[in-house]
Design a protein that fits this description.
By secondary structure, this protein is α+β, with helices and mostly antiparallel strands. The chain has 10 helices and 8 strands.
Length: 193
């Protein structure tokens, strides 16, 4: 089902990724036109217009109404609105990445800055350095803050003792945690946020 939805989205975007088709949609949004009229308005040949209309009809964006020997085309605004809601709804956009491991980047960062392998439980992991990149730094700081329990108050000495296990410059690490609002201090007592 998801693959089918992705394919429909690809067809939609491919159909609209053409200047002539976008212009046809613009014209048909305001008036009904024949192939001949569209060809004159866009200064294109009728077979070219027919080709573009076929692509738009496949998506059901354009409807045809026969009148005698002439076919008139108009934009199906309801289909366009339905597609727009489906395509641009935040939940739908997020679902496009359902099969992507969103933690892969964090794992890569942790493996780059934590020694030995951060997933190893054989020995205590040590932070090599605090990254200068803000996103990488936040990933590392979230790993560090998980060494503290939620709801527990820590005196500064205990905070420093925990941080020393993971990084020799524990004062810089404590400041980075506070700057990132992952660790708060109130009257000498620290707690995880």
């Amino acid at each position: 089902m998801k693959n089918e939805k992705l394919q429909n989205l690809l067809r939609f975007f491919k159909a609209l990724a053409d200047e002539s088709r976008l212009r046809i949609i613009g014209i048909l949004a305001s008036q009904e036109c024949s192939v001949e009229e569209l060809a004159v308005l866009l200064e294109l040949k009728e077979p070219t217009i027919s080709h573009h209309l076929t692509k738009l009809k496949q998506l059901e964006l354009v409807r045809m109404r026969p009148e005698g020997n002439t076919h008139f085309y108009h934009l199906d605004k309801e289909v366009l609105q339905a597609m727009s809601k489906e395509v641009f709804h935040p939940d739908e956009i997020v679902s496009l990445a359902d099969d992507v491991n969103l933690q892969a980047w964090e794992v890569k960062v942790l493996n780059s800055y934590i020694e030995p392998d951060f997933q190893s439980t054989e020995s205590v992991q040590h932070l090599r350095e605090i990254p200068s990149s803000s996103k990488k730094r936040l990933t590392i700081l979230k790993w560090v803050i998980n060494k503290f329990e939620l709801g527990v108050e820590y005196p500064q000495e205990k905070v420093d003792d925990i941080l020393k296990i993971y990084y020799s410059d524990f004062e810089t690490l404590r400041k980075a945690l506070m700057d990132s609002r992952l660790l708060e201090e109130n009257n000498g007592v620290y707690f995880r946020c």
